Amino acid sequence: MPATASAGLDRMPVFDHLGVSVDDLARGIAQFHPVLHALGIERHDAEGSVSWQRDDET
């Protein structure tokens, strides 16, 4: 058994919310969208911003 499991840390940590600011929105989308899309996280566009989330989460 790994040391972390015996210490009660057997759950995988997850992010609830993460914010990233960029100077160039188009370049940020080009960088982050392929990775997040591959992870099943869908993009939601708004005026002057974009966010990603799983469709089953709000």
Verbal overview:
With 58 residues, this protein is of the alpha+beta class. The protein has one domain (18-58). It has helices at residues 3-6, 25-38, and strands spanning 42-46, 49-53. It has a two-stranded antiparallel ribbon. Strand 1 and strand 2 (49-53) form a beta hairpin. The termini are far apart.
Write the layout of secondary structure elements.
Elements: H1 3-6, H2 25-38, E1 42-46, E2 49-53
Antiparallel strand pairs: 1-2
Counting helices, strands and paired strands, the structural category is alpha+beta
**Rg from alpha-carbon coordinates:** 16 Å
What percentage of residues falls in helices of 4 or more residues? 25-40%
| Anisotropy-based shape | elongated
Note the run of SSEs as H and E. HHEE
**Total strand count, please?**
2
Task: Give the neighbour order of strands across the main sheet.
Answer: 1-2
**Main beta sheet: strand number and arrangement?**
2 strands, antiparallel
Mean pLDDT: 83
Count the domains.
Answer: 1
How many DSSP H or I helices?
A: 2
Residues in β-strands, percent: 15-25%
- The termini sit apart by 35 Å
Oligomer state of the chains in this structure: single chain
User: Which runs of at least 5 residues are low in confidence (pLDDT < 50)?
Assistant: none
Organism: Diaminobutyricimonas aerilata
Protein name: Glyoxalase/bleomycin resistance protein/dioxygenase superfamily protein
